[in-house]
Amino acid sequence: METTSSVDIKELNERIHKSSAFIELLNMELNKALVGQKTMVERLMIGLLANGHVLLEGVPGLAKTLAIKSLSTAIQGRFARIQFTPDLLPADVLGTMVYNPQAHTFNVRKGPIFANFILADEINRAPAKVQSALLEAMQERQVTIGDSTYPLEEPFLVLATQNPIEQEGTYELPEAQVDRFMMKLVITYPKKEEERQIIRTNLNPQGMSKINPVVSTQEILNARKLVREVYMDEKIEQYIIDIVFATRFPEEYKLVKLKNYISYGGSPRASISLALAAKAYAFIKRRGYVIPEDVRAVCHDVMRHRIGITYEAEAENVTSEQILNEILNVVEVP
Questions:
Q1: Spans of all domains in the chain
Q2: In this model, does residue 89 exceed pLDDT 70?
Q3: How many whole angstroms separate alpha carbon 201 and alpha carbon 289?
Q4: What CA–CA distance (Å, rounded) separates 246 from 300?
Q5: pTM of the model
């Protein structure tokens, strides 16, 4: 851990303020197509800058596809949409070996996973074989086809969607896979004024504004390195550890009543994701250092899918959101 004396906060702050200028450009471009989904766009950027994947839960029609498609256009990245269905096979996602009768050889035909931005639509509709194939791509950033392993392009971001209404014909995602999503966002309906703006934008005689490329993929990769340089004090580190440990051992934080509601708490991956997301959030806010508000701002999105709730909690309608609220109210802020 670097100490304050070994890090010139002022110099780092100035460098990050200058290097993060593209965030405003990106926001302006995305606002042409997206209305009222500021949080979703911000969290997508955090996932992109922190090299993490995002799981979205929301009813159809809330601009989830439009968001990632617009982001890929603005960043000059390749976009692929995979519709997950019960009859989907791993080869439909990853690719396969195709026999060439003229040359009597097998050639590799790469699947849609070989893109920068992947929209895994209704991810919980695909069976376990497809989920495990996607898991290697998400975690290892590589794909195995036949005897060969192929690295995926960087940046690589998986945005997976889940419909919370329909449960028929769906498969619950394995905990190991859910944990590999850096954030889980719950998307809600837009406000009345935002809905009015959405109608006007879509009924515009000139059509919707075209998204222009404003950032290169190389700039994103450079920004990722800078995100890791964002200064995080030991007190902030301790704050993150306390939040995660309170999900594992609530009684140690005088939250005895939560013990019966939590079946398992956040893993070490939760601590890493919370720290990285807080750094990326500080970068988006054009700061070279993390403050407690950064941690609190991303905490629910990073932690909500990492807390297992018991049958007792379900019976009493206690959600992971409420558990996190209790923890954030009790854990001491530095």
A1: 230-334
A2: yes
A3: 38
A4: 14
A5: 0.87
